[in-house]
Amino acid sequence: MGFKDVFKKSFLEGFNGMDITTAKIAATLFVTALLALYIFAIYRLVTRKVFYSKNFNIALAAMSLITAAIILAMQSNLVISLGMVGALSIVRFRTAIKDPMDLVFLFWSISIGIICGAGLYEVALVTSVAVTVFILVLDMIPVSRAPMMLVVNSSKMDDEQTVLDVVGKYAKSYKVKSRNLSKGRLDMVVELRVKDESGLVSEVAALDGMIGASLIAHDGEVTF
After folding, report:
1. Looking at the structure, do residues 167 and 57 belong to the same domain, yes or no?
2. pLDDT tens column, 142-151
3. Where does a domain end: 105, 140, 175?
């Protein structure tokens, strides 16, 4: 018997389905469900979104169970395995993931399903704990605040220097990112780092001819 015959025999024997018992299916889905609930709880703990999506969190948990079931099915039969690969290759997901952390949790959920479906429960458990600790530790590390954007709308075209004089009182350094003059109106955006955000916006907004002043953070938070 040559190497090709040995490889062929071992490959086919790996899909005989004899080791996919009801007990193994139940154990796999039970462990996967526990880890899926763990991911559900961690996502709710970590996320700080104002509009928390419970449906997305439920989808994360369900994704682990579905993935584990797919892996079990692929192990049971060679034909099912090849057919499943072909079927999944044509699936296209159109939902946009705006928060990078959502993508991390989505990949985490799918990975747990794959690992549990392969029967590597210890790996799934250790991986989940390690990912949790890693996320929480990095989240607690202090980082410098990103620059903010001061958006100014004035009815005076020559009001730029006046605005910059006020900005200079609150920020050691700043940079004008854009300026637009049109029909007696000045629109400008200034990038800066400032501690007294309320004082800066109040003083700029109180300038003569000022239509509006907004201070916008890069992370999507807005201070008026």
Report:
1. no
2. 766 678 888 8
3. 140
